[in-house]
Amino acid sequence: MNSKIARKMGVVATVAILFLSTVSFKSDFFEIAKQIEIFTTLFKELNMNYVDETNPAELMDTAINAMLEDLDPYTHYWNEQEVQAARINNAGEYTGIGATVGIRENKIIIVEPYKDYPADKAGLKAGDEIIKIGNIKVADYAEDAGELLKGAPNSKVELTYNRQGQTKTTSLTRGAIEIKAVPFYKLLEGNTGYIVLSQFNRNASGETLKALKELKEQGAEKIILDLRGNPGGLLSEAINVVNIFVPEGELITSTKSAVEKYNQTFFTTRKAIDSEIPLAVLINGRSASASEIVAGSLQDLDRAVVIGARSFGKGLVQRPKDLTYGTQLKVTISRYYTPSGRCIQALDYSHRDEEGNAIRFTTEDYNEFQTRNGRKVYDGGGISPDIKMSTSEYSSITNAILQQNAIFNYATEYYYSHDLKDFKNFKFTDKDYTDFQNYLSSMDFDYKTFTEKQLEELKKAAEFEGLESDISQHFSQIEKDIQNLKEEALEEKKSELVSLLSDEIIKRYFYKEGLYEYYVQRNPEIQKAREVLNDPVQYTEILR
């Protein structure tokens, strides 16, 4: 084992020195070299002398990930498989079973089968838990079992899965899967075109342009661009999408960094396809990165009315840096700024609270900027819409429910207990909502508010000072009041929860395509966008 370790240490030291030699010389070179030498000698002695057999690769992975974890959640070390997965995601196509899967507690859960792709044809449904891939049990597989679902085109794979307490098997043939950046577009009443842009892969601007042209040929005189839930992607594609609606030579975004070469400005480079057509952009708390560049630049240039809820607030730029053996470092190199000068980053990872969480910028920290027409806009926390919609917001209780997969799991139960033939007449009723509340109680759903976390700290301080017995009664009353408020929150946030529940349920029966058809008829944000676009006076007043 020692000779292998020695070879690994040589590689590690070489990689580290090559990597660090490419960074800015803002750090003292001697200090870097010193720390590398300390680490390599420690790593060598640990592996040669530890009482039990060690796994050098696993130790190194742990060391790398622990180091990067102290920075921000977007700086990652990617192994060969992860590098390939990123390329597939940006390319917009891959070979697999045709489904979104989630890894939860060493379980593979089907999150969404794509219509008419292998998983769908084999009968797999959202909520199915895959327990065996071929002869390999998922629970016994130490690495990412999701990788076993991928394979060569036309290769077969047998899956064993659990559904509602029953074990089933199915066989499917892997195929080429196309990930559409624009999965849906349609001409609505009133000559309004509706375009869903779900991600910024290499096809994003091309598919958006195609959709716009077809809608205009059908008579579209106004456009709704839906960026809700769009996590971002390629910066170049974000600029190209803006360029469809904005003339050549306009500043779209700039990046600022401690490294001079990463300070850049990005302008539109082509003639716009239509720089006059009235435009509404929909965003929510899951619209991030490239989505925020599009929404923010169109807002700063007074080119579109932005509707929904404050976006995610990811204003950090990453760039992949090739390492050895096909691996990469995806490293944060700079921050994005909108044309008015706003940085949309919501969390400050250079400052953390006592629990190690990044500090969120508060409204008191926001700085005021102006759009081209002089409208006030602010930095510090994503893009704030011109028209805010409660149904687009994600409150703390909603986020907690989402994190515990309660909406997803409830939709699974709903699907197997309700027969829904037509989404046009679907409505999530008050009785259904009461049933959902009972479901939350049955799964012992609970979450800690920020106030509760602060109260725990206060209790510790009171105990330290010997005051706990004197004020314990007050603590009990506060805890009781908080619990009552949490229960009331389920009613106060009913509209946003019903919206999410409806979306998940519709998708179970009618796929993503059916959900979009449901959206254009029922969705409050789309209805508001149509109202604004159909009222030229209101549209103009908002932008001026």
Description:
Helix content is about 40%, strand content about 20%. By secondary structure, it is α+β, with helices and mostly antiparallel strands. It has 5 domains: about 1-70, no CATH class; about 95-180, Pdz3 Domain, CATH 2.30.42.10; about 185-390, 2-enoyl-CoA Hydratase, Chain A, domain 1, CATH 3.90.226; about 395-445 and about 495-520, no CATH class; about 450-490. The strands form 6 sheets. Strands 3, 4, 5, 6, 7 and 8 form a 6-stranded antiparallel sheet that branches. It has a 6-stranded mixed sheet with strand order 10-11-12-15-16-23, with helices on both faces. Helix 6 (about 205-215) packs parallel to helix 7 (about 235-245) and helix 7 (about 235-245) packs parallel to helix 8. The termini are far apart. Keywords: Hydrolase, Protease, Serine protease. Belongs to the peptidase S41A family.
Descriptive key words:
serine protease, 16 helices, alpha+beta, six-stranded mixed β-sheet, PDZ_sf, six-stranded antiparallel β-sheet, 41% helix, 544 residues, Pdz3 Domain, protease, disordered N terminus, 5 domains, 2-enoyl-CoA Hydratase, Chain A, domain 1
